[in-house]
């Protein structure tokens, strides 16, 4: 196994490194722009080495990696410069359009606005307004006129968490709270882009679920896994899935895309399987998958999965085998080029770490488990996938959430098949909505499955030690754990003892540093 076997990984890893370095000099930008001056001659040298000096292939690879490193640093610097805004201290009039439905808080509503006008066009802010009947009538895309003094995001009220950097990384440049008399909606033409239209469509589909008879937690669960609409999920349900190790089942991700992808192939008539019509089948699949991504609001996990499945479809049409790891690296590179700040989103990191771990560890784990029956092989697949995913995400989960679900394998073995049925029935519900008896039967089945899922997870969290309270208090320890995981994988894959020794060295260094820290 060599990194050269995955060309896209050779590009995305230095690109990520550039983003991380740029973030260490956050909001200054001067260092990054200075480094950028080196980028043009480096790219020129890369071309020269590639075109004329075949013997200098190693130097070509080094210069290519350096180019992507500097490109990543510059891309993140551009993101920071666009998001960071120096707001005037005096009270001014602003206008913006609502990009999503109002988000209800304890004592107010939060409006996600994108400003319009000459000075701050395209700048995104959070506007907080008191609770009243006017807010509930707002629709994404509607224009809002307000008056006040916008301030930069502040972290003083949140201990141990840099809320301002969190907002900046998510593209929010300012916040403002105003009274009811200082804002109003402006009737007229709606504004907004793809995500705004998706929010309107998603809400209308949610309301259609209500009309068809889904209600309560059943409605919330079906809407979350089929539309990515999770606003109706109460805290009890979220905590239930988190404690049992099933949070990934609520987040629309690669699992859901894979189920829909397989279901679409099952639905296709046999004549589309002919070689001459293969391109038509794959084109239909790609269009439906991107349509699903649009409906769910295009979260990072869905975009990653749809890009990968799109590349898989293209590979089938042109008759070439694609490397899954290489495809994953390409998807990550595309998403980071589009939005470098995605790297700091926990969902983005967990999604890619889980998939990469599955691609690397699942074949190894599966080879250790021997089953001779169909049911046994199916159980083996669930076990190997679950273990592989947890290997890749465990360090990050423990660092971010200070805990680890003990019975994650039991949760996945039981809940993944049920969730697969819920997703398939959700698709079928739209297909047979015109047939009332069939629609009522599907709605009843969804309610039964949702209730069954709730009962199973509620039982799992009552088992002894269902959650281990463990924490990682420093980011370098997360990197150390991933270093151990990488070297252990190389040892299992290549069979060289040196890799295992390197993993032990990392553990020894960690123990030494921890001991010195405690003593001092």
3D architecture notes:
There is one protein chain. The strands form two sheets. Strands 1, 2, 3, 4, 5, 6 and 7 form a seven-stranded mixed sheet that branches. The mean pLDDT is 80. The protein is 64% helix and 8% strand. Strand 2 (103-104) and strand 3 form a beta hairpin. It contains 19 helices and nine strands. The radius of gyration is 25 Å and the shape is globular.
Q: In a few lines, what is going on in this structure?
A:
This protein has 19 helices and nine strands. It has helices at 7-24, 30-52, 57-83, 133-136, 163-169, 194-212, 216-227, 235-244, 247-250, 254-267, 278-295, 300-318, 324-338, 346-368, 374-401, 408-431, 436-460, 475-494, 497-519, and strands at 92-98, 103-104, 108-116, 124-130, 143-148, 174-177, 183-186, 404-405, 467-468. Strand 2 and strand 3 (108-116) form a beta hairpin.
Give the overall pLDDT as a whole number: 80
Low confidence ranges: none
Total number of strands: 9
Structural class estimated from helices and strands: alpha+beta
- % residues in beta strands: 5-15%
How many helices? The count is: 19
Distance between the termini: 42 Å
Q: What gross morphology would you assign?
A: globular
* SSE order, one letter for each helix or strand: HHHEEEEHEHEEHHHHHHHHHHEHHEHH
Determine the fraction of residues in helical runs and give it as a percent range.
55-70%
Q: How would you sum up the major sheet?
A: 7 strands, mixed
Number of domains: 4
Radius of gyration using CA atoms only: 25 Å
């Amino acid at each position: 196994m060599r990194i050269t076997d995955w060309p896209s990984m050779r590009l995305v890893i230095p690109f990520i490194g550039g983003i991380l370095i740029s973030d260490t000099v956050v909001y200054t930008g001067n260092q990054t722009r200075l480094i950028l001056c080196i980028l043009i001659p480096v790219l020129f040298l890369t071309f020269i080495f590639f075109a004329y000096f075949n013997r200098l292939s190693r130097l070509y690879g080094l210069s290519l990696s350096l180019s992507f490193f500097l490109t990543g640093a510059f891309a993140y610097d551009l993101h920071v410069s666009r998001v960071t805004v120096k707001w005037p201290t005096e009270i001014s009039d602003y206008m913006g359009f609502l990009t999503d439905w109002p988000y209800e808080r304890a004592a107010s509503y939060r409006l996600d606005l994108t400003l319009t006008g000459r000075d701050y066009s395209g700048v995104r802010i959070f506007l907080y307004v008191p609770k009243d009947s006017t807010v509930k009538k707002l629709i994404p895309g509607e224009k809002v006129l307000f008056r006040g003094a916008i301030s930069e995001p502040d972290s003083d009220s949140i201990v141990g968490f840099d809320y301002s950097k969190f907002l900046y990384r998510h593209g929010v440049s300012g916040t403002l709270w105003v009274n009811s008399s200082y804002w109003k909606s402006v009737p007229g033409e709606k504004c907004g882009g793809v995500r705004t239209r998706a929010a309107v469509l998603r809400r209308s589909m949610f309301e259609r679920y209500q009309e068809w008879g889904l209600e309560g937690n059943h409605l919330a669960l079906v809407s979350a896994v089929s539309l990515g609409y999770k606003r109706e999920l109460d805290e009890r349900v979220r905590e239930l899935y988190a404690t049992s190790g099933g949070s990934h089942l609520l987040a629309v991700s690669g699992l859901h895309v894979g189920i829909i992808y397989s279901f679409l192939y099952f639905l296709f008539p046999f004549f589309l399987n002919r070689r001459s019509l293969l391109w038509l089948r794959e084109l239909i699949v790609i269009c439906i998958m991107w349509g699903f991504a649009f409906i769910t609001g295009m979260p990072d996990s869905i975009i990653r999965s749809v890009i990968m499945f799109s590349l898989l479809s293209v590979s089938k049409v042109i008759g070439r085998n694609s490397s899954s790891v290489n495809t994953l690296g390409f998807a990550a590179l595309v998403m980071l080029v589009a939005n470098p700040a995605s790297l700091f989103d926990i969902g983005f990191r967990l999604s890619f770490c889980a998939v990469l771990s599955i691609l690397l560890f699942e074949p190894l784990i599966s080879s250790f488990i021997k089953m001779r029956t169909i049911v046994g092989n199916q159980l083996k697949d669930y076990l190997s996938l679950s273990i592989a995913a947890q290997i890749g995400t465990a360090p990050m989960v423990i660092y971010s959430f200070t805990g680890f679900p003990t019975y994650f394998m039991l949760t996945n073995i039981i809940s993944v098949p049920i969730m697969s049925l819920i997703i398939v029935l959700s698709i079928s519900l739209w297909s047979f909505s015109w047939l009332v008896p069939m629609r009522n039967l599907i709605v009843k089945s969804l309610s039964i499955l949702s209730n069954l899922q709730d009962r199973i997870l509620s039982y799992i969290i009552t088992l002894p030690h269902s959650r281990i309270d463990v924490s990682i208090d420093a980011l370098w320890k997360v990197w150390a754990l991933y270093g151990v995981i990488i070297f252990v994988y190389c040892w299992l894959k290549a069979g060289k003892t040196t890799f295992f020794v390197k993993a032990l060295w990392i553990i020894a260094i960690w123990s030494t540093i921890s001991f010195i820290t405690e003593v001092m």
